[in-house]
Amino acid sequence: MKNKKGFTLAEVLITLAILGIVAAISMPALNNAVQKNKVPPSIRKMITTLENANERILQEGEADVISESILNYNTNYINELSKYIQGSIDKDASGKVKTVKSYGTIKINGSESGLSNTDKYKVFKLQNGSSIGIWAKDTISAPAPGSNYKGYIADILYDMNGFDKKPNSVAKDIFIFVVDNSGAIATYGSKLSQEITNISSNNWNSTTGCPNDKKPASGSEYCAGAIEENDWKVMYKY
Predict the structure, then answer these.
(1) With a threshold of 0.85, does the pTM exceed it?
(2) Which position among 171, 176, 181, 191 has the lowest Cβ density within 10 Å, counted as fewest Cβ atoms?
């Protein structure tokens, strides 16, 4: 009878080493793909959550616009939202509401310089681990002429992973919305956001926006609009 030959210890160790190298190479790409696929449904769910909360605010205030439904809306909007969204306003040990700036810089267009005015975005943590930063404007900007919308009232930064987790990068895990006084939420860079803000330049479909099949070296703030207007798909190089 022939003796059965097994694997030597050296062969087993070499095989494990090769498998480890392959895993180390493939895991980042796999994690990136998983995160990319989570983006569109996560954005859509957050928009629905915010619009439902705004509808409740309008109903409770018996008003047609948020600025009339909330007393001093620019300071109290986050308090009203917190009544209808599962989670809590993020406060420090002294009871002061934290801002996005409390968590450090946000990458935008690949730069560590961060997004301007992050000290103005008050943070609300959702129960699912995500976060929103809310900047209710001091003044309401009128919508585009002839629009049925009521005016640009607030900006929202939505971080799918929460501001306490990396990469904290716009178009990766952070996406920008604008809020209309009617309660509507629009992805920044979409045609709807242009109508609400009456700003013609914030369009994703340009060389300085978030064009398809390209990595947004500039204009990554418009990528939420690009996702919505591409049938809720991430078409840019993620």
Answers:
(1) yes
(2) 191
Distance CA 152, CA 136 (A): 9
CB contact at 8 A, 182 and 217 = no
pLDDT at 32 over 80: no
Place of tokens 């801002």: 99
Per the prediction, the chain carries an average pLDDT of 90
Give domain status of residue 107, yes or no: yes
Residue holding tokens 């209808």? 84
Range of the domain at 180: 35-188
**65 with 128: CB under 8 angstroms?**
no
Which helix (DSSP H) or strand (DSSP E) does residue 92 occupy?
Answer: none
pLDDT of residue 135: 97
Q: Is residue 210 in some structural domain? A: no
Q: Does residue 189 contact residue 225 with C-beta atoms inside 8 Å?
A: yes
